[in-house]
Amino acid sequence: METSLSLSHVLTGYSVSHVARQSKVQRSHLRSFAHLLFGPRLLIGLVILFGAGTMYFASSVEAAGIDLGVTAQKAWDSVLKKADAPTKLTLKQTYEKVGNWKAQEQTWEQKTKTLHAANTAELERLRVEIRQTDDAKIAALTEKVKQTQARYEPLFALYSSVNHQLDAAKAIKNKEWSVAIRTQADTLRPVVQLAREDIRIKKKELAEARKRKSAEIKRLRIMLAGTDSAKKQIQTAKKQASLAKERYSGALQQFKQSTKQGQTSRVLSSLNALASAAEKWAGTKQNIHTLEQKVSTTYIKVRQEIAKRSK
Known about the structure:
The protein is mostly helical. Helix content is 93%, strand content 0%. It has helices at residues 2-37, 40-63, 70-82, 85-131, 135-171, 175-224, 228-261, 264-310. Helix 7 (228-261) packs antiparallel against helix 8. The radius of gyration is 40 Å and the shape is rod-shaped. It starts with a helix and ends with a helix.
């Protein structure tokens, strides 16, 4: 967390200095452009307007931090005025730490919301696609079985008719008819057997494909279930975040109360407690985001497995 804080200070310093340099370049360009279009009188107004906007942006960056409210802000300003130089510096630095941790908490909160929404949408898509695993293959094999059966249906009908005729010939004891029909039946029998074998093979292919589909669905769902642990940890982490928020709120009220009393030592003590609470709160939000990333990683792996099956 100390590394995150140091990085935050560096980035903040960079952002303000970068904005200042960019503002200087942009004012120079604006001045030249305004000279060409409007002349020197309007130039003055534009420069003042642009400068005011830059000052507002810079002040907004610097002001990002604790929302004290009017009364508490006045009390805090009064404490700073009364403090000696070293104490004032310490107070300001600690105050900035609180603001930085609070900003990080808000950043992790937003990142987590965005990632969670993406994960929720992806989970729905994955569930649908898992249910549809090999549907195209199975549909093709099912259609092949139907077509094969339809193609052989006239043959089966003919073979059945011949057998009925053979039974009739036997019933009336007509030897010549029986011999003729039996010859026809014997000729059809191996062809019918081949047709039945062809249908059996295609039905077996369909059954095996359905079996593979069931196994694959089970495997992919087990992979999805791999997020259960992270999701349970997220619920626990959210409770911890709620407790951390309560501690922060309590510490903030204590800080406001100490500023009203005006004792520098108590203000610094309560401010340190507030910084600690803010750091803890930001840490719990970062932990939630980390766990949400684990969920996302699992979904990516499942997506890759589905992509393999489609090839």
